[in-house]
C-alpha cells in the first residue's frame, strides 16, 4: 500500500540518537552510527521524531510500505530491553555515551584542597542522554535545572556524588520534549530513586512537573524527592 512513512537522510544524519527515544513505537534504531528505520510496519508515519532531529535528516514521504501494525509494535516494545546506545559505533563525538569513575574517591579532595568532580558519565544534557545507557541501570538519578550547579557551591559533594545526572532548563527548552524523554528513561531503565533539583524561581517548577508527569506516565513506582535551591545558593528544602 502507498502511505506516509519516515525517511532518514543518511548523509545528513550524524548518529546523535535523539530520534530514537522520540519514537514511541521504537521504529528507529542506530546502526553503524546512523539512524535507520527498523521496520516499515513499526512506523505510524505521524512524524513525532521530526522535531528531535538537529540535522533535519528526517522527513515524511509517501511510498509503498507495509501497513502500520500496532500488534507488531507491542511485540517489538516488549522485546526491547535496555541496550547499549549506538553512539559507540560512530556519530557525534560530543554526544557519545561514556561512563567513568570519578577522578577521586568519595569524600576525597583533589590536590590543593580543591573539590574533586563527582561526575560519573557523559553526556548530561537531557536532550542528549541515551535512555538505555548502562549508567542508568540501578542508578539513583539526579535531575537538575541548569542553574543549580552554578548557584549551589557544594553541588558535587552534596547532591551529585554517587548519582547519574541529567540536566536541562524548563524555561528555555521544550518541556514537552523533556516529559517524553524522562518517561522513556523511567520506563526502560531500572532507576532506584529520583532527586529533582530546581531553583526557587517560578519558571523552574517546569522541570519538577515534567519529572512527576513522566513518572506517572511510565507506570513505575520510584522514590521521588524535590529540593529547591535559592538564588544565592542556599537549600530551601
Provide an overview of this structure.
There is one protein chain. The protein has two domains: 2-80, Alpha-Beta Plaits; 97-104 and 116-229, Rossmann fold (3-Layer(aba) Sandwich). It has 237 residues and is α/β, with parallel strands linked by helices. The radius of gyration is 19 Å and the shape is elongated. α5 runs parallel beside α6. Strands 8-7-9-10 form a four-stranded parallel beta sheet. The chain is built from six helices and ten strands.
Low-confidence stretches: 81-91
What is the number of helical segments per DSSP (H or I, 4+ residues)? 6
Query: What is the annotated CATH architecture of the largest domain?
Result: 3-Layer(aba) Sandwich
What is the C-level CATH assignment of the largest domain?
Alpha Beta
CATH topology of the largest domain: Rossmann fold
Please outline what is shown here.
With 237 residues, the protein is an alpha/beta fold. The protein has helices spanning 19-22, 70-78, 148-151, 155-160, 175-188, 205-218, and strands spanning 2-8, 28-31, 34-37, 58-64, 98-99, 121-122, 140-145, 164-168, 193-199, 224-229.
Give me some keywords for this one.
elongated, 6 helices, Alpha-Beta Plaits, 4-stranded parallel β-sheet, 237 residues, 2 domains, Rossmann fold, two-stranded antiparallel sheet, alpha/beta, single chain
Furnish the topology, listing elements before pairings.
Blueprint: E1 2-8, H1 19-22, E2 28-31, E3 34-37, E4 58-64, H2 70-78, E5 98-99, E6 121-122, E7 140-145, H3 148-151, H4 155-160, E8 164-168, H5 175-188, E9 193-199, H6 205-218, E10 224-229
Parallel strand pairs: 7-8, 7-9, 9-10
Antiparallel strand pairs: 1-4, 2-3, 5-6
